[in-house]
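debug: dumping io for the single-chain case to check the tokenizer round-trip. Nothing else runs in this session.
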Amino acid sequence: MPLLSEALRESEAQLAAVVADRERLERQFYQAQKMETVGQLAGGIAHDFNNILTAIVGFGTLVAEQVSENEAASRNALEILAAANRASALTRQLLAFGRRQVLHPTRINLNDTVHSLAGMLRQLIGENIDLRIICQPDLPPIRADLSQLESALVNLVVNARDAMPRGGRLTMETADVTLGDDYCTSHVGVRPGRYARLS
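debug: decoded output
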């Protein structure tokens, strides 16, 4: 009888583990479905919004050309165009999130990308967080999809902001690094060579 009781306990434990695994997988599946739905919604909205932005940029360019002699009006028109271009960058991120945008890896200057997003990133984090940007000069170009890179930067900064509810300092730094065999052995999929690092 003791052997039978022990076997029953083991069977019950195994069954409980199987049930727990199944429940965990079901939760992950439902979460993945929800994310897919959110992605489709974001992609659809971003696609429509991008069409509106195209018209804004087009007419804004015409206005800027027509009022070029009026300094104040020309400055206002250029501000409208700059805002529309920032909104367009956000739209690209939403399209990438919604998987409605095909990835286009190109040669990118990482320093330029970081600096171009600095204004928007400072607005995202608020006044109680000090954003420091340190870029290594003459950084070699990287090959990446600009929208995905911008989206990753925004996500990292938002996560950092949420981790500092009382404020603090956020430092973004670029560097030229060479990864050797030792590093690559402990990081699957990484090949030895020269890389641009964003930290």
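debug: round-trip ok. Residues 38 and 98 are 8 Å apart (CA to CA).
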